[in-house]
Amino acid sequence: QVCVVFSEELMCWCRALVESVRCQADGYQLGCFLVDYAKYCSVASENIRVLAGAFAKIPHRAKKCRLHCTKPLTLHIDYCENTAKIGPAKRWDTAAIQHFRKLLE
């Protein structure tokens, strides 16, 4: 369900999908995906509101997607044999993400 959250980074109210809820000492923190900005953010539970009827029908500007058949790779270094090979990884590393974003721009 899409709701409205206040983004501290953008300093405005945004439509968002709540993806996770974490309990903290001062309340709950919600992990959200901003559907009009394609950003992830963390929001305090007091900064969430129900989305008004007509606004819920507006299409999202951002969609979550994946690259078809593209798997993350990383550099595996073998210090004993003094070699380096590119191989599969569980997650994309930061350098690869930054490089991909630059290619998109």
Question: What would your notes on this structure say?
Answer:
Helix content is 14%, strand content 46%. The protein folds into 2 domains: 2-57, SH3 type barrels (Roll); 73-103, no CATH class. A hairpin with a 2-residue loop joins β2 and β3. It is mainly beta. The strands form 2 sheets. Strands 4-3-2-1-5 form a 5-stranded antiparallel beta sheet, with no helix packed on it. Strands 6-7 form a two-stranded antiparallel ribbon. The protein contains 2 helices and 7 strands; from the N terminus they run βββββαββα.
Number of domains: 2
Q: Please give the order of strands in the largest beta sheet.
A: 4-3-2-1-5
Q: Largest sheet at a glance?
A: 5 strands, antiparallel
The CATH topology assignment of the largest domain is SH3 type barrels
Question: C-alpha Rg, in Å?
Answer: 19 Å
Order of helices and strands: EEEEEHEEH
- What CATH first level of the largest domain would be assigned? Mainly Beta
How far apart the termini lie comes to 30 Å
CATH architecture of the largest domain: Roll
Binned strand content = over 45%
Structural class comes to mainly beta
Please estimate the helix content.
10-25%
Average of the residue pLDDT scores: 86
> Unreliable runs, pLDDT <50, ≥5 residues?
none
Shape: elongated
- Tell me how many strands there are: 7
Number of separate helices? 2
EC number: 3.6.4.13
InterPro entries: Tudor (IPR002999)
Keywords: ATP-binding, Helicase, Hydrolase, Nucleotide-binding, Repeat
Protein name: RNA helicase
